[in-house]
Write a structure and sequence with these properties.
Length: 395
């Protein structure tokens, strides 16, 4: 399709279900008031008193805090054409993604059922399935649908099936970057002409304490029970859950259809650290190179970036490495009069892992709508390893 490969991608709809925020409007209120949705682990997931300890003993979690969405157990199974028995065995990530994808299409003024037979892509970030783990160890309960009910790929496939969508349909697992990787691939699908509309984002649900125990042993979780991004003495993150979905079109198609355009994706790229100090350790050099390539492909100069929504996991080492990387990448041509603001949504929501990137993206869309940048919660003292006096403002 001539001229498609470099065309900007328009975001024409969005929806979310985040901790303390069941809609984009509620999410904005949480951000604007600088509140946090982090709270005690609800008893409906697991009894934190059996798995948490202040001294982080082996096999326990260092904190009883997390970000959890309300009413996860509720699902309008009749609306989506399920029997009650089918819905009960379905991974909550599939149910949640179905609901949020439908709401995202409504946000774009698209009647979901009218897409039947269309080349609409569904590409979502999904990292794991606690539900699948629970179901697979209960062998006597197995039936022929245990795979479709639990496999991560079916989070996307279920949406395509329910709406009879014929475009690419798959999930991406690249850990914390999963939803942004999915967004990158969705944009590529549109630019290549492989699809004409795309649903992209990510979902993450916690039903078991196992991942939190493992993350505690790795030293990733915050014993304070908060994500204090870029703060001095940051001690890690709080695990959270949720789902965010955006609706994408080629810019020319969005203009033709008279869509509301929330923002444009000018360019994106993906890469791996390569060999570093550890497979889960950040590489400042790799991050700088990645940002540089993304700017080049977008045709944007570093000094033109006015705001950056950071990863900001709340660890002293990771945050300082990230900050040094984006400061160096965005510094060329920048003057003191053109400062770049830095924000992060993790202190408000916690770390949504596979859905963390789309949570940051939806925050940016809301900032553009309201023409306001919320502050970073808990940031009373900046990490000592982050340079001062440069044209970057941590909000």
């Amino acid at each position: 399709m001539p001229g498609v490969t470099s065309e900007p991608i328009a975001i024409v709809g969005m929806a979310c279900r985040f901790p303390g925020a069941a809609t984009p409007d509620a999410y904005w209120r949480l951000l604007e008031r600088n509140e946090t949705a982090v709270a005690d682990v609800p008893r409906s997931r697991w009894d934190w008193r059996d798995s948490s300890s202040a001294d982080a003993r082996p096999g326990t979690i260092c904190s009883n805090q997390g970000g959890f969405i309300a009413d996860l157990e509720y699902f309008d199974w009749e609306f989506f054409g399920f029997s009650q028995a089918e819905a009960a065995r379905l991974d909550p990530q599939q149910r949640l993604a179905l609901e949020v994808a439908w709401e995202a299409l409504e946000s774009a003024c698209i009647v979901p059922r009218t897409l039947a037979g269309s080349e609409t892509a569904v590409i979502l970030g999904v990292a794991h399935s606690d539900h699948g783990h629970k179901l697979r160890i209960d062998y006597p309960s197995f039936d022929a649908n245990v795979g479709p009910d639990t496999y991560e790929c079916f989070v996307a496939n279920r949406i395509s099936y329910a709406l009879n969508l014929k475009g690419p349909s798959f999930t991406v697992n690249s850990a914390c970057s999963s939803s942004l990787f999915a967004l990158h691939l969705a944009a590529q699908s549109l630019r290549s002409g492989e699809s004409d509309l795309a649903l992209s984002g990510g979902v993450n649900v916690h039903l078991l304490p196992g991942e939190s125990i493992s993350s505690t042993m790795a030293g990733w979780l915050s014993a304070e029970g908060r994500c204090a991004s870029f703060r001095e003495h940051g001690d890690g993150f709080v695990r959270s859950e949720g789902c965010g979905v955006v609706v994408l079109k080629r810019l020319a198609d969005a203009r033709r259809d008279g869509d509301r355009i929330w923002a444009l994706i000018r360019g994106s790229t993906v890469a791996h650290n390569g060999l570093s100090n550890g497979i889960s350790m950040p590489s400042g050099l790799a991050q700088r190179e990645l940002i540089g390539r993304a700017l080049e492909r977008a045709g944007v100069a570093p000094c033109e970036i006015d705001y950056l929504e950071a990863h900001g996991t709340g660890s002293s080492r990771g945050d300082s490495s990230e900050a040094l990387a984006f400061m160096e990448a965005l510094a060329p041509g920048r003057t003191a009069e053109r400062s770049c603001a830095i924000g992060c949504c993790k202190p408000n929501l916690g770390h949504l892992e596979a859905a963390s990137g789309v949570a940051g993206l939806i925050k940016i869309l809301l900032c553009l709508q309201h023409e306001k940048l919320p502050p970073i919660k808990h940031l009373d003292e900046l990490n000592r390893w982050i340079p001062r006096g440069k044209p970057f403002t941590f909000l």
